[in-house]
Amino acid sequence: MDEDSVKQWAEKRLRSGITEREWAFCKDRFIVEECATDEDPEALVRTVKALRQHFGDHGTAEGAGRLPDMKRSDGDETQQRALPDTLLRREERRRAFAYSAFAAMLAAARPGVLEIREWLLGGMLLTPEKARSWVRSPAAALLEHWKFESLEIPYIGHLAVIGGRPRRLQVDPGGHSLPLPPREYAEYGEIRCPDGSEQGRLIRFAPGSLIDELALVVSELRKEFPWEPHEAVEFVLCGTYPSIAPLKTTMQWGLSNYRVERATVTIEVEPWISASTVEEAYRAAQKQLLAGENRLLNGRGLDVLAFGARRLGEKSSKRPTWRRLMAEWNQDNPDRPYSDPRAFSRDFRRTEQRLLMPRYQCWPDVARRMVDS
Fold first, then answer.
1. With 160 labelled, which of 6, 81, 229, 352 sits at a CA distance of 20 to 30 A?
2. Do 50 and 154 share a domain, yes or no?
């Protein structure tokens, strides 16, 4: 059969269409060719079913099209979380707390922090709720401080929205209706501000705006203190000092066009943390990613996969059959022979699937973003 006939036959068996990503995956691994030559007629159907079971059984061509795009942009889907305090020893928690408090004391005396708190906040600190409301104000993100003064708009406590046709900035008190600044959007800066979440909310701001002046202070603080941007913003506005974690675990999980699924664990640790705490942190990350399953792959299966991959990767006009690959394997490995090419192919495919598509447990919000993308 030709490739079109193979695809039509497999889609009838699956009772749904095969997506472009699924087809590309199977072609890369010579699975389509196996079906076309009747070497393994069920290989295509079996592989597509495995893909859908692994990444989500959507059941139809339209549903499968909502599978994770799996194309890398700036990197893998990642989340970074500080080690929970419950995993630190008592003396380690006390030392981390003391260091965090002392760092906040030093930061509070920096000139930029003192100036922001004096002229912007009027010598008063905001509650976390008021701070989160203020950083979402389009007026704070678009207008310079002299504009607030000339229109007698309070820095803190104003209400601002963008609306109308044409779109304008509406600010109270005063009932001001202002044109949006005619600046290029590419010139706008970005900063993550507190919103109650772990990563903070990304805010875009115009050059010279109130948030721009706040961002400059935050940038200087982060050169000296190991704080996240939203933590530094909340410190400046609210006085809440960030907890400096002496150990951070980064678990990175990513996909690349169905080709490879890979996860890594990175631990950033201060040298005074005990080795047992580091080991416990790694085990916790490993348990989360592997869901408690960490079985070693079959040794002969790994050798078969490496052997077959080398042969299949060689440039030639025609792909060798499984029977020929098995014969070459038996010649090189007389102590571990195969008698059935189907068994040889089965061990190759099973090991490939477990090696390249292990069942890593990503975080629910990561999985939701990837499926919705």
1. 229
2. no
